[in-house]
Amino acid sequence: MNKNKIVWITGASSGIGKSIAIKFAQNGIRVAAAARRLDLLEKIKNELGDKAEFFIPVQLDISNYDDVERFYKNISGDYTVDCLINNAGTTSFKEGIQNSIEEIQNIISVNLLGSIYAIKSVLPDMSDRKSGTIINILSVVTQKIFTASSAYSASKSGLHAYAKVLREEVRDKNIRVINVSPGATATSIWPEGVLKKYSDRMMNTDNLAEIVLNIYNEKSNLVSEELVVRPIKGDL
Ligand SMILES: NC(=O)c1ccc[n+]([C@@H]2O[C@H](COP(=O)([O-])OP(=O)(O)OC[C@H]3O[C@@H](n4cnc5c(N)ncnc54)[C@H](OP(=O)(O)O)[C@@H]3O)[C@@H](O)[C@H]2O)c1
Fold this sequence. Notes:
Blueprint: E1 4-10, H1 15-26, E2 31-35, H2 38-47, E3 55-59, H3 65-78, E4 79-86, H4 101-129, E5 132-137, H5 150-170, E6 175-182, H6 192-198, H7 205-217, E7 226-229
Parallel strand pairs: 1-2, 1-4, 2-3, 4-5, 5-6, 6-7
Helix pairs in contact: 1-7, 3-4, 4-5
Bound molecules: NADP nicotinamide-adenine-dinucleotide phosphate.
Residues 10-17, 35-37, 60-63, 87-90, 110, 137, 139, 182, 184-185, 187-189 line the site of NADP nicotinamide-adenine-dinucleotide phosphate.
């Protein structure tokens, strides 16, 4: 039996991931929308009206390897996971000296390890099928130095390095590995004061989601491997 395709989006309860999940569902692409805050995911589903059937809320802490494996086992029993969008992320906006070990562990566990756990779970099936897409939402910190983001930069640059190696390993399996590195985008990841001052010049999550949808929809034998997207007025 041919299973229906699904796109697994992590961190879909707010910000960029929420906009990507909504954009895909609105275009009739079924999404497994994962995050810890199930109440927010249910609310998004309810607001999708006649497209709600394309939005499947899933409670998942991406930093827990056992939970990620269990989730993938369940979802892949019912659907073919055609695309993984590693979007879940967190930061602290503190300098290295101020970051607690718990904060550093959390940033690395969610942004780097969580993304790798998800990639590890989808890879065997994608490899067997000789098809699939992995999109990592990185950051402009992979391109440029930003202070008060050492752990965050390590997590994103670590995933960047991992993904660049993986891409070469899975080319012959027809698996697309795509890194999207956005600049400042107006979401609740930013402290309120920064949003108040700069949200006008930040990017909009809906516009970014449109770009991700377009990349996903590229169907020829090409792949947009690395994409850096900034506010037109540059970094903050
Ligand atoms: N906003 C920007 O300027 C910007 C720029 C470049 C890159 N990014 C990246 O874009 C991605 C999305 O960030 P955002 O700006 O949209 O921030 P956001 O609104 O705070 O969204 C973060 C998402 O990550 C999820 N998340 C956090 N910890 C998680 C965990 N342990 N398990 C599962 N999900 C978890 C959150 O869901 P729950 O809390 O419900 O679990 C939430 O849905 C991040 O990777 C971020 O680094 C953002």
